[in-house]
C-alpha cells in the first residue's frame, strides 16, 4: 500500500509581519510582470482591489469588511497609501 501524499509546508509558518512582507514582494513581482506585458496600472489596481476585497469578504464577511473600509477616506487623505519618492 502506498503512503498518503502530504501537502504540509516544508517549514514552520513565518510570523505575521514576515508573511506580509513576503506577500508584498510577490505582489510587486506580479505587478512588474503584468506591466511588462502591457497591462495598464489602473486595470491592475482595480483587479487587485477586487481580489483583495473578495478574499477579505470570504474570510471575515461583508459587514466586517464594510466596517474596515469605512476608515479609508481619512487614511487616504492623510497620505497613508501615498508613495513619496525621494528627490536628490
From TrEMBL:
This is Uncharacterized protein. It comes from the Bacteria. It comes from Bradyrhizobium nanningense.
Amino acid at each position: 500500500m502506498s503512503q498518503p501524499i502530504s501537502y504540509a509546508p516544508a517549514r514552520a509558518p513565518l510570523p505575521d509581519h514576515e508573511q506580509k512582507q513576503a506577500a508584498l514582494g510577490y505582489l510587486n513581482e506580479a505587478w512588474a510582470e503584468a506591466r511588462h506585458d502591457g497591462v495598464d496600472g489602473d486595470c491592475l489596481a482595480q483587479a487587485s482591489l477586487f481580489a483583495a476585497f473578495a478574499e477579505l469578504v470570504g474570510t471575515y464577511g461583508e459587514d466586517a469588511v464594510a466596517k474596515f473600509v469605512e476608515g479609508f477616506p481619512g487614511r487616504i487623505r492623510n497620505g497613508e497609501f501615498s508613495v513619496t519618492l525621494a528627490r536628490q
